[in-house]
Amino acid sequence: MAPSQSILFAKAISRTASWSLSFYPQPLLNLRRHSTTGTTPSFPFINTFGFIAYLASTLAFYASPLIRHQYAIRNPSAPNPTVQINDVVFALHAVVLSAVVWSMFAKRIWGFEQGATQRVGTAILGAAIGSVFSVVAVTIFVASGPGGGFDAERWAWIDVVYAVSYIKLLITVIKYIPQVHTNYKRKSTVGWSIEQIMLDLIGGVLSVVQLVIDSLVQGDWSGVTGNPVKLGLGYVSVIFDVIFILQRYVFYREPRRGAKEVDVEDGERSRLLGEREDER
Fold it and tell me: HSE of 104 in the Cβ direction (CA atoms, 13 Å)?
């Protein structure tokens, strides 16, 4: 293995490991607390949906001869997509773990204590439905256009794959917003694992670094412009990770280790019940 290839391999494995490990702290925390309080179901729902889209687009760029051929035509100076096998493995792993976390909100399955919010938000649900309709519309447009999607210089099947990949970018932009808002309302991050954020931050930084190195080795920055989702995912993840870190350690600092953990939602319910008793 050449030195440059060794560097690429090491960066890819490090980034994949960090992001993959980031999926474990939250379900482990839920299992330890036997509760999903402090978290919102909107996040694991849209996360699962987004990673399904990411898996589909990644598989297409990695394994589809047609998509790879159309990519090469549009990017002649860097004809090979920067998608690697570790991207495929990561995407599949992410779908499974995200689905497991989402399932933890089903009390009949896990029997966990639940918070006040147990439904996926209307805006998040609307984004998922709208994304599906958008991809269907692009697919119909490409299939009915000149060349039937096989002419890379026109609207082609690679554009459908790009549409699917943009879903993941859109979801990455919006998926953290419900949890940021939940933490803000509760003035607490209890129940939300900060360890997953730290690992996600490392993965996001390494993702950007890997993409830049890939393009430098190929000697052409079209590797970046040809895979904007991978670049965008890294930047957006880092921004939200910083927000969560600020919420945890600056805005809503938690009690010192060893102090009794009290869920804010439970406290609010107790306060309301107390007020009702006083009124009686």
Answer: 28
Question: Tens of pLDDT along the chain (280 residues)?
Answer: 444 555 555 555 555 677 788 899 999 999 999 999 989 999 999 999 999 999 999 999 999 999 999 999 888 877 888 788 888 988 999 999 999 999 999 988 898 988 777 789 999 999 999 999 999 999 999 999 888 888 878 888 989 999 998 888 888 889 999 999 999 998 999 999 999 999 888 877 777 777 677 667 666 666 566 566 666 666 777 889 999 999 999 998 865 454 444 444 444 444 433 444 444 4
Closest to 169 (Cα-Cα) out of 90, 228, 210: 228
Q: Give the global pTM.
A: 0.78
